[in-house]
Amino acid sequence: MNSTMEQTQAHHESGDVVVAVTGCPKEDARTVFDVLRRAFVSDRPESDTPQEASDTRPTVWTATVDVSETRTGQGPEQLSVPVMVEAQGGYWAVDRLRILLAEAFSVRLVGTAAGDQEQEIRLRLESHRPV
Q1: With 60 as the cut, is the pLDDT of residue 93 above it?
Q2: Could you give the C-alpha distances from 117 to 21, 48, 104, in angstroms and in order?
Q3: DSSP conformational letter for 47
């Protein structure tokens, strides 16, 4: 069995980022995941559509993306409400994910937690505002 340090190191080197989307309708979650799927390899197939899990509690949708290779650039995308995204992975990988999201959305960093090999960031995504 791998030690925690070995697992963390493998996670960092692979370019994997765990992404959690919350605080939005399922259509906005789908928009965020579609942007990530077009740019990176994802554990979520294109046919996977987010569904509401509860009428009374917030739903959190998750995916893991590999940011080692970027497939395509992004254009601006529309969201109906601000979307909260948490991303966890190696420093380089999380930063690459944030940069890609900034091509499609207005991104504001609202929180960070730093570790030795990994970091977790919390982002607020909104539609780009017209200039």
Answers
A1: yes
A2: 23, 31, 27
A3: T
